[in-house]
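Q&A log
Question type: sequence-to-structure
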Amino acid sequence: MPYASAPRKFLIGLALYARQIELSIDRTHGDWQGLRQFYKPRPQPDDLAVLLLQAEARNRSRWNLLQTFMANRPVPERDRWMMARLLFDFSAILRGYEPATDDLYCLRYCLSQTTSIFYRRLGMRRRLEKLDLHHFNRTGHLPAGKEINTIVGDDWLRL
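Response status: OK
Response body:
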């Protein structure tokens, strides 16, 4: 199974971004215009998918046994491609496509599964899952969640 190592900070930010999409889709309730407005000032999913694939192609390396025992294990190629595909699918929604309910459930489920794989591979599953992440249509009585840049840093998109 081919492995590559994109910068860790980028992969953490990407996993959080995917989780944010998952939470936002769950709370959309058909408000596609509001969802599009929410993501307008944020990084665009198709740009992130391209960055992921470019970073992986640029940083291909052999994985050694020592790294296997460390928490930062690489994300398998099939999971990186799955994440990129899901980001492209979400990008279509932001460009105007209104998915059927079944497609939306499938997208959300696949995002959840792929994000979980990223979390485990980054050795941060428990910490990342407990984060109070800002997302679309967040319940009004809860305090504002944290933005990805606050958690990871403003430079997470620099490869």
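Response note: Residues 8-152 form one domain.
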